[in-house]
C-alpha cells in the first residue's frame, strides 16, 4: 500500500484523516493531520483527492501543503503537481449544446448518454461505474449511493444547471467529490421567462390563443378574457438571489411596480436601486399582487408556498414559479385556482416533471405550465455547457472549479 504524508503548520494539532483508494495499478492511502478546529475540513478533502490523483498519475513526490493550504491557495498547489486529465473517464448524461464537449474529448474519455429521455436509475448506476467525473442534468439524482457505485476514483460532479438540489452535496463532501454548477449565464433568460409567465397567466394568453387555434373565436368580446395588469401594482419576490433580482429589475424598471421581497439577508443594493422593502413571507403574500418564487429548493423551502401561504394571497393575485416545483404545494394550488382564491398561476417547474397531461393543474384554465424552459435560449445553454465543461476539467485536475458549490 502506498502512503503519502502531508505536513500542516504548527497550529495543526493531532486528528487524522485517512483516505484509501483503488486503481487498476493497485490500492493507495493518504493520511492527513489536521487542525484542532475543523476549519480546514473541506480543504482536506480536496488535498486528499489531489494526492490520490497525483499518485494515480504516477507521481510519488511528498508534498508540503502546509503554507498554501493554510492560505487556501489551491491553484498554485495543483499546478505544482501538474496533474493530467488525459486518461480520465467521464460520463455526460445528455447531449448538451455548443462546442464544449469537443474540448472535453481532447482531455478525457467521454461517454455521452445519447437519448433525449434521461437514463433510468439502473442505467445510470451502470454508466457511472469507474468514472472520474460526471456531467449531470437536473433530472439525475446524484446521491451517496450513486457516488459509491461510481467508485472512489470519482472526484467531480458538474451539474448542468444552477440549481443543485438533485445532488447530495454533503454526501459529495464526505467522499471528497467536488460539485459544480452554472450560475449567472442563465439569469437573464430565466428572469425573462418569469416575466413572460406573469403576463401569460395574468392575460389568459394560452387559453385565448387556443380559442383562435381551435376555430372557436366568434367575435370581439367587451367582457371576454379580462385580465389583471402589473403597472403600479406590488410585486413580491420570494428569494432575492440572482434571478429574483433580475426579475425585479425588469418589472420595477419596466412597469413601475412596487417591490417587496423576502431574503435571508438584507439586500441593501436592491433597496437602493429598486426601492424594494424586505418583509416576512406572510406580509409579502398578503400585500403583493404578483408573487414570483426564486428561492433555491432546500429542506427549508420545500412546500414553502403551502395551503396556508396561498390562503394569505389576494384573490386577484398571480403566482409565478420558475424555481422548483417542490417549493409550491400543487394540491393547494389546484384548490385555490378552482375556488378562484387567487387569479392565476404561471409555472415553469412542477412536481413531477413532466407533469402528466391529465393533472388538474394542466387542465386548469387559470394555470399556464411550461416544460421547464427558463434557461432554454441558445446563449444561456451554450454558456452553461462551457461552464459545466470547465468545471469538470478543473475538478479532474484537482483545481478549483470555475463555479463550485462545495
Ligand atoms: N426554470 C428554470 O429553468 C431555472 C430555474 N432555476 C431555479 O432558480 C433558483 C434560483 O437561482 P439563482 O437566483 O441563480 O440562485 P441564487 O442562489 O442567486 O438565489 C437563490 C436565493 O434563494 C435564497 N434562499 C435560499 N433558501 C432560502 C430560504 N430558506 N428563505 C429565503 N431565501 C432563501 C438564497 O439566499 C438566494 O438569495 C435555482 O436554485 C433553480 O432552482 C434557475 C435557473 C433556471
Ligand atoms: O439551472 C437550473 O437550475 C435550471 O433549472 C435549468 O437551467
Walk me through this protein's architecture.
The protein has 406 residues and is α/β, with parallel strands linked by helices. Among the domains are: 89-181 and 381-397, NAD(P)-binding Rossmann-like Domain (Rossmann fold, 3-Layer(aba) Sandwich), CATH 3.40.50.720; 187-215 and 227-369, Rossmann fold (3-Layer(aba) Sandwich), CATH 3.40.50.720. Helix content is 37%, strand content 17%. It has helices at residues 41-56, 66-71, 74-81, 100-107, 121-128, 144-150, 169-174, 187-202, 205-213, 242-255, 268-274, 281-287, 307-311, 330-338, 360-363, 378-396; strands spanning 2-6, 16-23, 26-33, 89-92, 109-112, 133-136, 156-159, 178-180, 234-238, 258-262, 277-278, 290-293, 318-321, 344-347, 367-369. The strands form 3 sheets. The chain has a 7-stranded parallel β-sheet with strand order 11-10-9-12-13-14-15, sandwiched between helices. A 5-stranded parallel β-sheet has the order 5-4-6-7-8. It has a 3-stranded mixed β-sheet with strand order 1-3-2, with helices on one face. The longest helix is centred in the last third of the chain and has 19 residues, at 378-396. Mean pLDDT is 86; it is low at 1-44 and 57-85. It binds 1,4-dihydronicotinamide adenine dinucleotide (NAI) and 3-hydroxypyruvic acid (3PY). 1,4-dihydronicotinamide adenine dinucleotide (NAI) is lined by residues 162-163, 183, 186-187, 190, 239-244, 262-264, 294-298, 300-301, 322-324, 348-349, 372, 374-375. 3-hydroxypyruvic acid (3PY) binds next to loops.
Amino acid at each position: 500500500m502506498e502512503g503519502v504524508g502531508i505536513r500542516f503548520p504548527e497550529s495543526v494539532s493531532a486528528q487524522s484523516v485517512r483516505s484509501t483508494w483503488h486503481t487498476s495499478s493497485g490500492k493507495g492511502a493518504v493520511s492527513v493531520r489536521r487542525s484542532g478546529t475543523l476549519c480546514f475540513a473541506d480543504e482536506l478533502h480536496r488535498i486528499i483527492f489531489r494526492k490520490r490523483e497525483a499518485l494515480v498519475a504516477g507521481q510519488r513526490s511528498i508534498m508540503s501543503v502546509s503554507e498554501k493550504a493554510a492560505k487556501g491557495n489551491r491553484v498554485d498547489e495543483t499546478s505544482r503537481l501538474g496533474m493530467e486529465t488525459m486518461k480520465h473517464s467521464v460520463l455526460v448524461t445528455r447531449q448538451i449544446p455548443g462546442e464544449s464537449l469537443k474540448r472535453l474529448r481532447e482531455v478525457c474519455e467521454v461517454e455521452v448518454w445519447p437519448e433525449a429521455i434521461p437514463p433510468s436509475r439502473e442505467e445510470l448506476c451502470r454508466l457511472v461505474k469507474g468514472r472520474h467525473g460526471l456531467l449531470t442534468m437536473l433530472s439525475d439524482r446524484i446521491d451517496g449511493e450513486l457516488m459509491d457505485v461510481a467508485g472512489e476514483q470519482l472526484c467531480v460532479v458538474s451539474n448542468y444547471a444552477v440549481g443543485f438540489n438533485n445532488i447530495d452535496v454533503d454526501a459529495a463532501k464526505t467522499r471528497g467529490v467536488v460539485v459544480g454548477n452554472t450560475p449567472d449565464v442563465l439569469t437573464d433568460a430565466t428572469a425573462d421567462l418569469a416575466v413572460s409567465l406573469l403576463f401569460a397567466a395574468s392575460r389568459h394568453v394560452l387559453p385565448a390563443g387556443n380559442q383562435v387555434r381551435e376555430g372557436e373565436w366568434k367575435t370581439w368580446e367587451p367582457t371576454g378574457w379580462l385580465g389583471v395588469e402589473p403597472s403600479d401594482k406590488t410585486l413580491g419576490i420570494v428569494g432575492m438571489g440572482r434571478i429574483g433580482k433580475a426579475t425585479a429589475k425588469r418589472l420595477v424598471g419596466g412597469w413601475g411596480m412596487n417591490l417587496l421581497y423576502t431574503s435571508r439577508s438584507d439586500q441593501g443594493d436592491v433597496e437602493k436601486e429598486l426601492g424594494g422593502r424586505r418583509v416576512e413571507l406572510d406580509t409579502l403574500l398578503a400585500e403583493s399582487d404578483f408573487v414570483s418564487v426564486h428561492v433555491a429548493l432546500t429542506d427549508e423551502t420545500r412546500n414553502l408556498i403551502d395551503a396556508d401561504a396561498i390562503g394569505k394571497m389576494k384573490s386577484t393575485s398571480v403566482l409565478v414559479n420558475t424555481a422548483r416545483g417542490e417549493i409550491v404545494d400543487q394540491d393547494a394550488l389546484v384548490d385555490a385556482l378552482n375556488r378562484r382564491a387567487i387569479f392565476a398561476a404561471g409555472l415553469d417547474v412542477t412536481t413531477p416533471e413532466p407533469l402528466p397531461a391529465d393533472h388538474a393543474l394542466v387542465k386548469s384554465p387559470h394555470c399556464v405550465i411550461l416544460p421547464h424552459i427558463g434557461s432554454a435560449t441558445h446563449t444561456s445553454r451554450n454558456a452553461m455547457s462551457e461552464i459545466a465543461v470547465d468545471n469538470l476539467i478543473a475538478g479532474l485536475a484537482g483545481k478549483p472549479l470555475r463555479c463550485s458549490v462545495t
